[in-house]
Amino acid sequence: MLQLGTEHRKNNNQLLDCKGEETMGKIRVAVIGAGVVGLSTAVCVAESIPDCSVTVIAEKFSPHTTSDIAAGILRPQFSPETPVDRQRRWFEDTFAHIFSLAQMAEAPDVGVQFLSGWEIFKEPPKERIPFWSDTVLGFRIMNDSELKRFPQATFGWMYTSLLCECTHYLPWLENRLKNAGGQLRAGKITDFWELDGKYDIIVNCSGIGARALTGDVKIYPIRGQIHKVHAPWLKHFVRVGDGTSYIYPGLSSVTLGGTRQKDDWRMSVDPSDSKLIFEACCVYEPSLRLSRKLFEGVGLRPARAVLRVEKEKLEREGCQMYLVHNYGHAGAGVSFHWGTAKEAAQLVKECTTEIRLRPIYTKSKL
């Protein structure tokens, strides 16, 4: 028999799960997903909330995540359904974070670098000055003389941004999480209630997996296929404004893209897409015909009209489960990851406060 102890919290050092088992010390947080969003969220929680223990649970870790396929440029895609101020904050927070890493001596090991280049348009965009123009460096509209470099374009931007290569960055985040006391665990979660009694707060960073895990039919895949080639003479990026073609020189390879195929779940490389990607990129950078192919890959961008960063409470048979969602980044996973991770960590902190303040059930002495 259990009885409610009035304001009996034992200095908030004891927690009780809904099965009546006392646990000492830290609040247990599970983060589902080990892509750039999941790992950055886990790091933010572990480093900003000392009384939490953080475990990342994922079916796949780097180099086998969707994030590993991402080109990694910090350049957000505008979502008309999401408030601009929110998008600006996410991007500014992410840019400041990656900027600080790019200033470090070990920046190449982390996988970050500054990258300058051109974004071009066949027709001028509706927004001639994007909301993120003040965040990147040296943003300006290209003049007619500069546009001669690209006969296919009538309008363009020049700016310096940051490139974050997840094949380096994700392992670095894993180590940073471990240094903060976090853990990594391989496993596939098909129902949040599988974690009942094992963790106090669940953070859902499952990307496209959120469709099955949460039943959220608003999320859908946008298939992206890329090449990586050896072309060390290329130093500047070229991007077509709608994202249909891009060339991003990285630390040891150049990423060529890409495809934006909505509701396409195929994970295998399509040879016809490969040919189209390469030929389209050669139009803007003919010297690519001298490059050597290194790798081809496919990733499914987890798209949603409104990126979901919010908390939720589930209830079943008298038990409560605290959830924080952070998914639906589409092609802005790298561009928004640290900003949304900080926001999700704040929501986790709010949940921990609620957990600490709720009455503790103790076993009756009768």
Distance between the termini: 9 Å
Helix content bin:
25-40%
Mean pLDDT: 92
Low-pLDDT segments = 1-14, 19-23, 361-366
Strand fraction? 25-35%
Outline, from the CA principal axes? elongated
Q: Rg from C-alpha positions? A: 23 Å
Q: Output the structural class.
A: alpha/beta
Q: How many extended strands? A: 18
| Major sheet summary line | 14 strands, mixed
Give the SSE string.
Answer: EEEEHEHHEEHEHEEHEEEEEHEEHE
Q: What is the helix tally?
A: 8
Annotate the secondary structure layout.
Layout: E1 2-4, E2 14-16, E3 22-24, E4 27-32, H1 36-48, E5 52-58, H2 84-102, H3 107-110, E6 112-121, E7 137-141, H4 144-147, E8 155-164, H5 166-179, E9 183-186, E10 201-204, H6 210-214, E11 220-230, E12 237-240, E13 246-249, E14 254-257, E15 261-262, H7 271-284, E16 292-316, E17 319-329, H8 333-357, E18 361-363
Could you explain how this protein is built, in words?
- The strands form three sheets. Strands 4, 5, 6, 7, 8, 9, 10, 11, 12, 13, 14, 15, 16 and 17 form a 14-stranded mixed sheet that branches. This protein has a two-stranded antiparallel sheet with strand order 1-18. Strands 2-3 form a two-stranded antiparallel ribbon.
- It is built from eight helices and 18 strands.
- The chain is 27% helix and 33% strand.
- Helix 1 packs parallel to helix 5, helix 1 crosses helix 8 (333-357) and helix 2 packs across helix 8 (333-357).
- With 366 residues, the chain is of the alpha/beta class.
- Strand 2 (14-16) and strand 3 form a beta hairpin.
